[in-house]
């Protein structure tokens, strides 16, 4: 019998009714003759409530105590889901992270999984039980309760799937799959039958955080087949795996975009070896996320460095830079807001040097000025005026024929 | 350095403010130069809320799932108390039941503690940390999360005190100690300096459930010195230990009482060997708690058996008896409601055969008719009219000089 791992996030288990709905999904898989491991997150707002309770007591609680506090959230969900299955006659067993053998680094708040001792889970599966595992949590060598940080439940599910050699890992979420672009903006957007791990990583922001990049990396490293699908709709999802099928003939597989981008330019920097590293180390230390970086050619007045940040972070970015003006030795800072990033993604473009040129051509034909460019092996990103964002996406969606390919039946 | 175990129940940790107050109590003990282990329950209504959530999903959840669900309550409290101590500069570590080495029988919902592996707790104490342990919970041999049932947190505290050879176990509660009788009814009621374990067991209902009998038994078996004291008031409490000091010269040490009692008489029973056992087995199977039992002398029409129950249980008692009328072969049932139980308690009465006689004399002098009597080595219970209850208690309080002895300073 095949082992299937299912993962349900916080919104999918946010109420008694939703937990009953999750039970339906589990039962459907059991009735197909599969052995099922279910990984769940804390119910909807539980984590936020616990965080707020903690902040009333201690504005800077230790990470160990926060792990102790927050892991109760998933423990509540696993017990309730087990009750929901049992009341309908299905044998189930709820396991905390440590009971499921999820071993992690001895780090609180953001531990990585080091190993999974599957003995306990395997025994329960062999006894024909549905095994329900608390996501996001594990245990360190010295028996401390740890958490995996952001995307933790996704990572728990993928790691269990890898350790159990599961047939696949179904990630149930509030979207029906991964799309060529955001269907809320572009009505021609089409659900993809399958994407590769790398494409998924680049398209991550298309699905409104549908799957944490860390879990995708994990799945890629262990060859775990992922399926992103809706917890509410009866609809095929999108497969994420290494070998992408026929549809792979498409060079560009999706268009990601994001507004509220600001371009910051630090001008008149000294032509020194460590300038670049000093600037971005300073920003990183202050938790400022920098996206595209461009270093313009040097001239006798020193060099300029431009980078893009989320507009909400601009104020803090300027503040941090000005605080370090003496050390960084720049002359002044320029900024341009109301920008957007539009990216084309596709593993096929590695062997297609003309893809970037095609993108620029399409944008130029539409009269859209490109302010910044950044490329990777499977992605070309451009920064354009915010007002031109949707027009750019629509034009690229047509030009790269993303609306045309038929959605294939997902046999998973 | 002495080890002190402190236990705080659900009402003592029911809010952020109350948790801060508990932190004060802990800090006071640390500043006295003691090593402190704190055992806490779930916050106020948390357990009720979780039970209600479960009942929405499954009216008969498995005990294993309920243990999984409810143990999150104490886990939340330990993390918050640890945060409260750390924000005030005191090093603390929160431990779940299993992390604190509380090993139990492999039973869910009502497990007994089998052993405590104190290594982890000891290490943290040696590192000058306040150790905060989740009450009510443990772990079985096969790594299942278990709970200890009613009075579980009291039992955790006493068991830890025994295993750590603690100097004492302070039970913080919403009363200031154990009284000679209920001060809400008898203004002469006086707080006792100390009582013995057996007296505490008999006086249990004086303190409105101040301490679970199971924890008292445990303390008695391991010679753990208990102190019952208020979590809100700065006042000495009552010591519970085997050797009671000078005050022990008092024969009667407390007067317990309880209203809403009904006397039920099953009439015309056959004079057979198994009659008594059959009746009370039948009642027990239906979860009916019977208190005083009197078998009246046999005559040619068969025997009568009287017993007292709480008035709220009468309807169910009669129903169960009538359902089994054929098997029990009685003729009819009589009942008398609006009764109360008044008991005198004191280990000194073992060697004072006149104590019961003195009690009856006092009641007779007050014109109070005694309906039922039951005696144990350290207690004499009488059932009287509900309307005479307080008068009986007041008269006995005076007659046995309970208001006269001075409260001694509690050096604990």
Automatic annotation (TrEMBL), chains A, B:
The keyword ATP-binding applies. Transmembrane segments: none annotated. PROSITE patterns: ACT, ASPARTOKINASE. GO terms for cellular component: cytosol. One of its GO terms (biological process) is lysine biosynthetic process via diaminopimelate. Belongs to the aspartokinase family. This is Aspartokinase. It comes from Sutcliffiella cohnii.
